[in-house]
Amino acid sequence: MIVAASGVEVRRGGARVVRDLSLDVRGGELLGLIGPNGAGKTSLLRALCGLDPLAAGHIAFDGRTPAEIGRAAFGRTLAYLPQNGRIHWPMTVADVVALGRLPHGAAVLDDAARRAMAAADVTPLAHRTTGTLSGGERARVLLARALAVEAPVLLADEPVAALDPYHALQVMELLRATARAGAAVVAVLHDLTLAARFCDRLALMDRGALAALGTPVEVLAPAPVAAAYRVAVESGTRDGVPFVIPWSRLDRTDRTEQSP
Amino acid sequence: MTGMRHHRLLISGLGLLVALLFAVSLLIGYAPLDFGAALSDLLAGRESLPALVLAELRLPRAVLGAAVGFSLGVTGAALQGLMRNPIADPGIVGVSGAAALGAVVAFYFGFSATFALALPLGGLIGAGVATVFLLMVARSGADTATLILAGVAINALAGALTALALNLAPSPYAALEVVFWLMGSLADRSLVHVALALPFMVLGWGLVLASARAMDALTLGEDAAQSLGFSMQRVRLLVVGGTAAAVGASVAVAGAIGFVGLVVPHLVRPLVGHRPGRLLLASGLAGAALTLGADIAVRLIPTRPELKLGVVTAIIGAPFFLAMLRRLKVEGP
Lengths: 260, 333
Fold this sequence. Notes:
The structure holds two protein chains of two kinds.
Chain A: E1 2-12, E2 15-26, E3 30-34, H1 41-49, E4 56-61, H2 66-69, H3 71-77, E5 78-81, H4 93-98, H5 111-119, H6 135-148, E6 153-157, H7 165-180, E7 184-188, H8 192-198, E8 201-206, E9 209-214, H9 216-219, H10 222-229, E10 231-238, E11 241-249, H11 252-258
Chain B: H1 4-27, H2 35-44, H3 49-83, H4 95-108, H5 111-114, H6 118-139, H7 144-167, H8 172-182, H9 191-209, H10 212-217, H11 222-227, H12 232-254, H13 260-268, H14 276-300, H15 309-331
Helix pairs in contact in B: 1-3, 1-14, 2-3, 3-9, 3-12, 3-13, 3-14, 4-6, 4-7, 4-12, 6-7, 6-12, 9-12, 13-14, 13-15
Domain ABC transporter (chain A): 3-232
Family (chain A): Belongs to the ABC transporter superfamily.
Organism (chain A): Xanthobacter tagetidis
């Protein structure tokens, strides 16, 4: 599966929140979508899901637009994990994960749903009702729900926002494993350390536009990070894997000096 | 997890309960009746007095009790699912208010004095006008909150115009009769009332029940439901259109019967593992059972004139609802 966005523009209340953005994501890769608050990451993800209309440009999945794929089949093509997802009724965890099977027919706890529960490490919670879960547990249940779709494309909006370091590492490993199993995975991330450590490529957005696209080492170099985030980073490698730590804030003067 | 077998058992049990209460509803009444003779006369096609009492008095009342109750239960569950709000009520889409206004207008201009079906027909016309307006709003791409606010606005306008009609009523007796009618009752309804309302109710049930899978998906919110392949606009049309048809027809023939649509989904929800799709049918059956039971109660309670059904459901429903709110607060969503 190749997800191809070209010349995408999204408007919200007249403002261009995504501007002339072109990007390809291939099956097998984990692409991290990073950028400061308000850069347009969530807007881009929603546009990829077909939740918001495009003001310009187009998005294709293996060459077909969502309209050509059709609504029901699109539900099997793409799994979407919204930011701060809620579960509105106190259903059991197993019933919530089974909702991911709806695009394939009924919401039943079949093998795919069980695999998703095992992968997200929520099988022991199967009979708990969602009202009794901690924030981290709920985040993993919602991830399991998205994985249960077994779609070739997974779009996750801040999947590690509510997680402690153990579960954040676990979820990032899981997203990478999902990509290795053949899916095209896009994850919005704020944690640059995790982004550098796990993603195959990073797309850095700033004020609606794509500021940098490439390997973590390229994108998280001091100059693009300073321009977009106004922070200086400390970076290095361990066992050949890059890591980045945001270290200090830069004021406006530093930003102009370091901008290309 | 709530298994499929458990669910089938629940649905069969509720179905049996409705059938039982339906039979009890046929068995009791004010006119003395040899039920066996009436039934055999009716089946043999003999036009005896017992057969007439059964077919013309008791059968319409039982059928409407079940149908109105099912309508309120199923639409209450659907609206709570659509809005993901446990205090949504079928009345919230404004169609009940509009149906009541239609009936009051028919009453006010004296149509009901000249022909008996003016009240239900006026109610149906009122509900129909409100439904067309709501569907236009839904089709224009309005979100759920806007759609519900449109319903609240219809309700407010219909309530104001109903109050105006009462204010200008030609005599206190006319006003009193309107107020009585608004309280909701199944007394003295005929098979013609059934024939008028039932088709719209059945249509409404079909539309609402068709939204079951989307209701489940909506547990995760509208964005996630859309990503699972459901069209929010279609779900809104199904639920609001179905509610308008079923509840509009209910209010047109039975007046406003409160609290059934609000309370019944809460009662049933734990029995279906809180799954909003499965809740629909179960809540409809439980609504039918509750309404039949309440209508049996108003005939057994020895007050004359008989208590209005809507009064009884509200008197039972409101304190019950308060008790449930306390429990909800403890458990939390």
